[in-house]
Write a structure and sequence with these properties.
single chain, 398 residues, alpha/beta, 13 strands, 14% strand, disordered N terminus
């Protein structure tokens, strides 16, 4: 921390305790719901699994919901639902967490990385159109920060090639596009319930789908590839089951599902609070020298999982990492989302990816910072972030 210009000058930090960039929200109702399940006969795949899945379909309007053990498991399960396999290609934005691409590799497919739009950092449909081919089994669209992608444009491209459109909605539960809710915008929609997300089950995820056959494949995939689960065997009065495909143990347990169900009831209020905080940031940062806010399309509701800004490095005497350290020294727990996936050593070494693959994403990766944003933040917390940002940028402004 002493390496920052402000710390060297001996300035008093804006906050004495670090404000995290994200934090889960748990209340007594959540805890009591979980305790009730922990005292029941069912800890694993009990009645609350189906109840949580029904809660997700009720909330989003999706026909089917398949709960799984993590957001990564949701992406992997979606790949299985789309029948992605060896020899296939999967197009994916490079401005995302590595799991969005890794899950194609898990299935033996080759990820093909697409660039983003500079103003929103969402996958660029033109980049998809340039790279799609008849080898493309699926396209993964990531709703970066919580803003849905341009699903109509992406759907039209996918339909030309018979490709499955997978929405990575880990950031966007509670959002919408042209009046349609996230969960109904893609053929398959993967969600995450990690503690940093809109709701949490500790770890957990789900895939939403319209096609019952895809949902059937995914339910088998999350349960070792077995054709009948315990409930179905009980209904048939039999112990017999068969493993018909290779699957995984990706089941979500009963006390996680009751936590998710309890959290779903609070989601609308939490999304509104996230929007209020984002609006407060937008107003404060609108004319702040050295800073650029991302553009939100007017036809979309951003559910504001994270708040990302870009630094205008042409106006600053410091790079992003120096600004990052300076803000940390001020007690602001900033983060970075993300290093472009194609720049990670694994992909460079195994798939031959290199700099220049996605120029706009690569440039943005040098400029972006994620600022604290979660429903338990107060207005004063947000004002501290603004004050720290203003203080740091002024110190490095050319």
């Amino acid at each position: 921390m002493q390496s920052t210009k402000l710390a060297l000058e001996g300035g008093t930090p804006v906050r004495t305790q670090t404000l995290p960039y994200a934090r889960q929200c748990l209340d007594e109702k959540d805890l009591q719901a979980m305790l009730q399940v922990l005292r029941s006969d069912w800890l694993t795949t009990g009645p609350n699994v189906a109840a949580f899945e029904e809660g997700l379909t009720d909330l989003t309007g999706a026909s089917e919901a398949v709960s799984v053990s993590s957001g990564t498991a949701a992406l992997h399960t979606a790949m299985a639902g789309a029948q992605v396999g060896p020899g296939d290609e999967v197009l994916v934005t490079t401005m995302t967490f590595v799991a969005s691409a890794n899950c194609a590799v898990y299935q033996g497919a080759t990820p093909v990385f697409c660039d983003v739009s500079s103003d929103s950092l969402l996958i660029d449909p033109d980049s998809v159109a340039e790279r799609i081919s008849h080898k493309t089994k699926a396209v993964v669209a990531v709703d970066y920060t919580g803003q849905p992608c341009d699903y109509d444009a992406l759907k039209a491209i996918c339909e030309q090639y018979g490709s499955v459109l997978i929405g990575d909605a880990a950031h966007s539960l509670g959002g919408s596009y042209k009046g349609r809710k996230v969960g109904t915008l893609a053929d398959l929609t993967a969600m995450s319930f990690h503690p940093a997300k809109h709701i949490t089950t500790g770890e957990g995820g789900a895939v939403l789908a319209e096609d019952p056959e895809a949902a059937k494949r995914m339910r088998s995939f999350r349960n070792h590839g077995i054709d009948l689960d315990l409930k179905q065997r009980a209904a048939k009065g039999t112990w017999h089951y068969e493993m018909t495909s290779l699957g995984y143990n990706y089941r979500l347990n009963d006390f996680q599902c009751i936590l998710g169900l309890s959290q779903l009831a609070k989601l609308p209020a939490w999304v509104e609070r996230r929007k209020e905080l984002a609006k407060r940031y937008n107003q404060a940062f609108a004319d702040m020298p050295g800073l650029v806010t991302l553009v939100n399309a007017p036809d979309r509701e951003n559910s504001q999982h994270i708040y990302v800004v870009k630094l205008d490095l042409t106006r600053l005497s410091a790079d992003r990492d120096q600004i990052y350290k300076a803000l940390r020294a001020e007690g602001i727990g900033v983060n970075v989302h993300y290093t472009p996936v194609h720049m990670h050593p694994f992909y460079r070494q195994n798939f031959g990816t290199k700099e220049g693959t996605a120029p706009r994403a690569e440039q943005a990766a040098k400029e972006i910072l994620t600022l604290p944003l979660f429903p338990l933040m107060s207005d004063a917390d947000a004002d501290d972030v603004v004050m720290a940002m203003d203080k740091v940028l002024k110190a490095y402004l050319l």
